[in-house]
Amino acid sequence: MAVPGPDNRDMVDVPAATRPYSVLDPLIARYASWLALPREATADTSDEDPENVVLMPMVLRIERREPPDRTALLEAAAAAAIALCVDERCKPGGEWHAAVHGWISGRIRKVARRARGAHWEAVQALPGITIRVGNAEARAFVPMRVADMPKELSRLQISGSELAADEPGPVPPGVPTLWLNPDVPMSAGKSAAQVGHATMFLAALLHAEGRDALLDEWAAQDFRCAVRKADAGTWAQLHPQDDAETAWRERRVAVVRDAGFTEVDPGTVTVLAQWP
């Protein structure tokens, strides 16, 4: 398990079996119902007060002189999102439980911002979990209302998170692969939010099957995963042509379908998450 230190700050050395996977239960019904809607469907937010929107802030460390590899940054973000959700502090009675449970029971919005230098160091004091992969770091924070966002987060920019494409190489054996849609360009920030959804869906689907032992093993690896841009053939092979339930049961593929709030059209499938 991860321990406090420069690579995984705020991760705690807790037996994986104590992790509150049940906090993910509300995702299953939402996952099935959302994928069953027509492709063009989107959430009705006409009566929504933007200040009352609840979301999970994420911060990507992007230093000016030594920016991280894009793939490593997305892998760190994907791992940080699920690591926070199943942290022991999210167990019933835990200090994060109410915030995380309430957020998962609604729309699991995420917004990724970028930080460097002193601003990156400042957000480490806020409740959350940082994961490092290679030369990249990302931090996921306890969900909150937009109106309650502290200045250390609200002052960070959402735009400008783009990084050059890299060549990450073959997928390591035994880790989930998060395939990005090859036909849908997304910024690094948008992609970070989408792969964060993907790891949550994978964990929720495994938990629903009673496969917590597999989740324990994944947790022991700090939720390591591989993010890759799919080629056309891979995307066509994995994309559900039948239904999401069959895709998961037969091919171990979970689908991330975007609501269309930013960058992409409503109903766009952004990520296909493949369990090994």
Automatic annotation (TrEMBL):
List its EC numbers.
3.1.1.29
Q: Which domain of life does the UniProt lineage start with?
A: Bacteria
Q: Does the keyword Hydrolase apply?
A: yes
Alphabetical UniProt keywords: Hydrolase
Known InterPro entries for this protein? Pep_tRNA_hydro_II_dom_sf (IPR023476), PTH2 (IPR002833)
A GO term for molecular function: peptidyl-tRNA hydrolase activity
Q: Which reaction does it catalyse?
A: an N-acyl-L-alpha-aminoacyl-tRNA + H2O = an N-acyl-L-amino acid + a tRNA + H(+)
What name does UniProt use for this protein? peptidyl-tRNA hydrolase
The species this protein was found in = Saccharopolyspora thermophila
